[in-house]
């Protein structure tokens, strides 16, 4: 049984090592994506003027009237002090060609006091230019920039499958790390003074044992991040009901045509503020987004610097029919069925934000360790492969020598 588990661990590890090495290092970085992005691109993040900010709705109106080709799809309702207001945009349809206007950007940074656009970029572009570096790393983390093929997001599926293999391999690795009850202490030790292969082996085995629980959490949540709808939610529904949203239940989607104009943001926000009172949501509306493919508005509730929802299960969201303004449900942290709570916890756990700054530090450490475990696993495999190859060569040489001696003796 153990020999079979060893082979499984070996091949699971070889098959996923490169992917997990990339995911580990990129994950360690994107735990601090906002801070690193701001440090690299101050002109995109720091507002040029310090005057009192205009209302976000007015800023969005100025942006759209200044460039009729674009439509603001994600609008923060307040900017951090001294920072730009960063909006996501998409191209409108050109009535002459019935095709989207050509745009080479999907995110803009706006001075909140003047409405001036300070910077533009294509978030998630395949580019390592300074302005694109952090979004590039973020997207690399979960897609590897692999393409859509026949409507399938190959990268997202691949990394999700890697996560599933990682879950099984984590269980196998824990079993293999404790070969006997008497030798359990060795599974926690690091032979630092010996160095070399001994230390490499201990980094792989003992390093994994010390943080095994954290590794399993990251593995499970990575599957939830990439394969929530096709894999995780159907499994969760076997044990608990899930409250439907417009993004999980197509029957809730508005009956609208692709080019139908949505209701004004002001109307949706008025309803969202009333919903805040009715649902006892503490935070104010922090952002509004429009999903054209679904013809749905979403309103998030958070402060200007808390869009990721540091601490707890994240931020509250309400959803609205963009055609009629009718409520399409809500996701309130800490409320709902057991399945709802499980799904709410996935991103906060995966990002470490469930524990605030401390959790993000922990996730960065785990990300580095995932890369270390992947690298040391490959080194161990290479050393054992070379040792087996050398043993085979030596054995074959001895066999040839014996045959030569035998043939020589026989010929005499």
Automatic annotation (TrEMBL):
The keyword Acetylation does not apply. The chain crosses the membrane at residues 12-32, 154-178, 209-227, 361-382. Keywords: Membrane, Transmembrane, Transmembrane helix. It comes from the Bacteria. Residues 402-412 have a biased composition (Polar residues). Pfam families: PepSY_TM (PF03929). The keyword Transcription does not apply. Residues 393-412 are annotated as: Disordered. InterPro entries: PepSY-ass_TM. This is Uncharacterized iron-regulated membrane protein.
């Amino acid at each position: 049984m153990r020999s079979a588990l060893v082979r499984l661990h070996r091949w699971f590890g070889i098959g996923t090592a490169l992917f997990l090495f990339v995911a580990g290092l990129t994950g360690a970085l994107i735990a601090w994506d906002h801070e690193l992005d701001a440090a690299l691109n101050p002109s995109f993040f720091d507002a040029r003027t310090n005057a009192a900010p205009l209302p976000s709705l007015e800023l969005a109106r100025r942006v759209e009237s200044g460039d009729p080709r674009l439509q603001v799809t994600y609008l923060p309702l307040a900017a951090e002090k001294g920072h730009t207001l960063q909006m996501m945009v998409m191209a409108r349809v050109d009535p002459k060609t019935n095709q989207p206007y050509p745009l080479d950007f999907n995110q803009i940074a706006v001075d909140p006091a003047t409405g001036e656009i300070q910077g533009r970029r294509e978030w998630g572009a395949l580019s390592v230019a300074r302005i694109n570096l952090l979004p590039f790393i973020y997207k690399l983390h979960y897609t590897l920039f692999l393409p859509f093929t026949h409507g399938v997001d190959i990268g997202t599926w691949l990394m999700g499958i890697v996560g599933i293999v990682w879950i099984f391999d984590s269980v196998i690795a824990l079993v293999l790390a404790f070969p006997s009850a008497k030798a359990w202490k060795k599974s926690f030790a690091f032979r630092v003074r010996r160095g070399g292969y001994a230390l490499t082996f201990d980094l792989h085995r003992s390093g994994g044992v010390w943080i095994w629980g954290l590794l399993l959490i990251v593995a499970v949540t990575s599957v939830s991040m990439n394969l929530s709808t096709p894999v995780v939610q159907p499994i969760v529904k076997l044990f608990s009901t899930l409250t439907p949203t417009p993004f999980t239940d197509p029957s809730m989607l508005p009956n609208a045509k692709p080019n139908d104009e949505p209701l004004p943001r002001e109307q949706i926000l008025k309803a969202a503020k009333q919903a805040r009172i009715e649902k006892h949501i503490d935070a104010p509306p922090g952002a509004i987004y429009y999903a054209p493919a679904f013809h749905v508005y979403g309103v998030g509730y958070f402060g200007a610097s808390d869009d990721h929802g540091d601490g707890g299960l994240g931020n509250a969201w309400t959803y609205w029919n963009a055609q009629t303004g009718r409520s399409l449900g809500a996701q309130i942290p800490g409320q709902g069925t057991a399945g709802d709570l499980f799904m709410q916890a996935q991103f906060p756990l995966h990002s470490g934000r469930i524990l605030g700054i401390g959790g993000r530090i922990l996730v960065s450490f785990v990300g580095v360790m995932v890369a270390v475990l992947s690298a040391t696993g490959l080194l161990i495999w290479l050393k054992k492969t070379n040792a087996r190859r050398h043993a085979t060569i030596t054995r074959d040489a001895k066999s040839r020598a014996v045959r030569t001696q035998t043939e020589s003796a026989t010929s005499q």
